[in-house]
Design the sequence.
């Protein structure tokens, strides 16, 4: 009994000491913060000195990156114009009397740019393989490459085999193809330095092929557990979407994350970003289930333009397995876009005005 009482006393003492150690001397002044900001706004940061302690300095950081410091608890001003859209995780590290106390909060940075609604004109219409469940589309050396998933095709209701293929876009004929295993659902593709990169949907891995021979030269694991959706490149880095509002910037050599953006249409996150194409410094992306292309600023995530392609669906033959719009390929020579959909019987060459 005495031993029990002694143990209880020790535990109580530790609890009291712990409570004393976790006393909050400072907190970020959230009364001066808004829930949402846009890039033209000024962020005013300050701390509340709960115990009137003498402050040596306050260091502020956003998303683990130092943005500046203050010698007291007063306002620290920070311009948001160069920040990526999305949540800004703010920390204030207060240094006082040889101690450091950290408080944190967050605000959301959203777009204040109303996207332009862009028109288009159909230049040509070509046949497209109705068994091609299009996941990726890209021109390379005047050849159209297409990555497909193993969706059902041709009205059979039977799932096909995912593939990577070279096609004659004028006739729809496939003249070179490599297939994935039945357990692998092919997703977005892109070509960089004569290498084709192809994603899979749920297997958390992708493949690198020789663009000429289609010989598989590498299998890579994603940098974290995510789904594989769209893929493109800017001539140096890869850009990968995962079905969320994020687009990840990757090093093509080790497939590790370099950076990322969050995509916003005004104050709303844009999720389910699918097939991607890099065109003259912008990312063009299909939004899954929407008959439109979003034009995205790759530096901050703003949707700057929308191309409504809903009229194209009226020009295709509706088969039992005809699915959504997906596939954007830009021909640099003609400066035209080639767009199609999953199991569509047509591909359209268009100019975007």
Sequence:
């Amino acid at each position: 009994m005495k031993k029990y009482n002694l143990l209880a006393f020790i535990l109580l003492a530790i609890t009291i000491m712990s409570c004393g150690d976790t006393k909050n001397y400072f907190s970020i002044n959230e009364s001066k913060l808004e829930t949402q900001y846009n890039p033209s706004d000024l962020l005013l940061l300050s701390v509340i000195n709960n115990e009137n302690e003498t402050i040596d300095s306050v260091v502020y950081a956003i998303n683990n990156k130092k943005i500046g410091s203050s010698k007291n608890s007063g306002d620290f001003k920070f311009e948001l114009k160069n920040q990526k859209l999305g949540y800004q995780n703010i920390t204030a590290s207060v240094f006082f009397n040889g101690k450091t106390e950290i408080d944190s909060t967050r605000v959301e940075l959203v777009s204040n740019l109303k996207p332009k609604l862009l028109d288009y004109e159909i230049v040509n219409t070509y046949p497209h393989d109705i068994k091609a469940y299009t996941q990726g589309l890209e021109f390379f050396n005047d050849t159209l490459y297409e990555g497909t998933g193993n969706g059902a095709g041709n009205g059979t209701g039977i799932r096909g085999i995912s593939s990577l293929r070279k096609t004659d876009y004028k006739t729809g004929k496939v003249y070179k193809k490599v297939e994935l295993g039945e357990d692998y659902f092919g997703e977005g593709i892109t070509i960089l330095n004569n290498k084709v990169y192809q994603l899979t949907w749920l297997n958390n891995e992708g493949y690198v092929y020789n663009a000429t021979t289609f010989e598989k030269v590498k299998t890579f694991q994603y940098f974290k557990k995510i789904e594989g959706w769209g893929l493109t490149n800017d001539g140096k880095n890869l850009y990968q979407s995962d079905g969320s509002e994020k687009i990840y910037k990757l090093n093509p050599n080790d497939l590790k994350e370099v950076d990322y953006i969050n995509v916003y249409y005004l104050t709303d996150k844009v999720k389910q970003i699918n097939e991607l194409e890099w065109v003259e410094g912008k990312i063009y992306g299909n939004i899954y289930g929407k008959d439109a292309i979003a034009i995205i600023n790759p530096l901050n995530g703003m949707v700057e333009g929308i191309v409504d392609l809903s009229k194209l669906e009226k020009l295709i033959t509706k088969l039992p397995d005809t699915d959504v719009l997906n596939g954007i390929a830009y021909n640099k020579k003609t400066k035209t876009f080639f767009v199609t959909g999953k199991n569509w019987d047509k591909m359209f060459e268009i100019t975007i005005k």
In short: The radius of gyration is 26 Å. Residues 42 and 79 are 5 Å apart (CA to CA). The chain has two domains: 23-109, 116-352.
